[in-house]
C-alpha cells in the first residue's frame, strides 16, 4: 500500500466507495466520474503503478471480476480498459481496470484507432524478436 495513493486509501476504507466486490487480492467499486451507467474499476490490492509492477498472482482474479460486473450490469457491449503511463492516459498511479458499459454511440468509451499500413518484412522481424524473448 502507498500512503499517498487514492486507490490504496479507498481499499483501506479511508475514502468511502461504492464497493462492488472485495477479496484478499482484488477490490472493485463504481467510478465516481462514470462514462456510462455501471462504469466500475477493478483494482489489485497490491500497489503498483503499471501492469508490469504487479505480481501475476495478484492479477488472477481481475478479469473474472470485471466479467462478473459486466454481466450484472446487463451490458451487452462494453470495454475493458487498462492504461499504463501518462501518455497512455493513466491518471492514477495504481493499476486499475475500467469496465465501461457501451449502451449506445454517445455513452461509454469513445476512442480513435489510428491504424497504420503494415510493412510485412518489418512485422516479421518484430515477430521474430518478440517470439525469441517470450
TrEMBL record:
Active site positions, chain numbering: 96 (tele-amp-histidine intermediate)
Motif Histidine triad motif: where in chain: 94-98
Keyword Magnesium (UniProt): yes
SUPFAM superfamilies: HIT-like (SSF54197)
Domain HIT: 6-109
Reactions that this protein is recorded to catalyse: adenosine 5'-phosphoramidate + H2O = NH4(+) + AMP
Family annotation (InterPro entries): HINT, Histidine_triad_CS, Histidine_triad_HIT, HIT-like, HIT-like_sf
Pfam families per UniProt: HIT (PF01230)
Molecular function GO labels: hydrolase activity; nucleotide binding
Single biological process term from Gene Ontology: nucleotide metabolic process
Cofactor(s) the protein requires to work: Mg(2+)
Alphabetical keyword list: Hydrolase, Magnesium, Nucleotide-binding
PANTHER family: ADENOSINE 5'-MONOPHOSPHORAMIDASE HNT1 (PTHR46648:SF1), HIT FAMILY PROTEIN 1 (PTHR46648)
Family affiliation: Belongs to the HINT family.
Name used for this protein in its record: Adenosine 5'-monophosphoramidase HNT1
Top-level taxonomy: Eukaryota, Fungi, Dikarya, Ascomycota, Pezizomycotina
